[in-house]
């Protein structure tokens, strides 16, 4: 057992040493970015073009399509598998003369840019992304202008492809102009959008949505919610709300638009059916509706069966509950079936039958 543990430890230690050595080697290597599909030439340091060298990639022989021209290595039609750490060694002593970390990728295409104000009237934010990956590090340059002057742009601390801008003035008739440029080692590409202040106002969805049944009302649900916490001044810039609800058994929504209210009573719910409920918010005057809030579920109040609490109720239930039919007695020979004749087999029962007949 001890030998097995020792062997495993040695293997792990060797792997750690290899990884550490590779990282140290890569730190000292120069990075060369090249475009996918191109032919790539790598030069072994400052050696003469006629020098004899040997090339390795990640410590092994280079197997990709290539040409070796003295101190240069030419890779043909590179792709993502061409990435790696290339090392060249001068012959015949085998001294390493250079290391190149080859990274294959693409120049950026036009970035997609959107802007939105969910904190009106404080400011707005802009986000951007590339529809196609470049496979290599790509940075973004952002410029925002309003009324022929540049505005301060604050990059988001969490979302790397987002920035925040304060409104320089409210109710401005001048449009905003946002330019985002994607830049990497293989190229750059820009996109510019313009918009009016009111067109980008879009609150976040309402929060803390709660739906509860109303006691003794089998068709009602009480819905309450809070305005989005990101909306900074709900008193001066009130919101209106759009409520939608439907039973789970149906696909069609019912809608209610509400002005400056954070509660609503649904009065037409189906009895005993579970409902799904959502809300959206919008500034009273400008902008567009928010996305829908997280869905909540609720079922209207249902009356529970009353427990039996007295012997009177037991008697009533017994009277209205049909009794099982008694087993039929086999009639004796020569005697008609039914009535008291079926009881003649017992003298005691015969006497009881006669007494009942006299009473009636």
Describe the structure.
This protein has helices spanning 2-28, 311-320, 347-359, and strands at residues 30-35, 40-43, 53-57, 60-61, 66-69, 72-75, 84-90, 95-105, 112-116, 123-129, 139-146, 149-150, 154-155, 162-166, 176-184, 187-195, 207-213, 221-226, 239-247, 254-259, 263-266, 275-283, 296-298. Helix content is 14%, strand content 37%. The chain folds into 3 domains: 25-105, Immunoglobulins (Immunoglobulin-like); 112-200, Immunoglobulin-like (Sandwich), CATH 2.60.40.10; 207-298, Immunoglobulins (Immunoglobulin-like), CATH 2.60.40.10. The termini are far apart. The chain has a 5-stranded mixed sheet with strand order 1-8-7-3-4, with helices on one face. A 4-stranded antiparallel sheet has the order 9-10-14-13, with no helix packed on it. The chain is mostly beta strands.
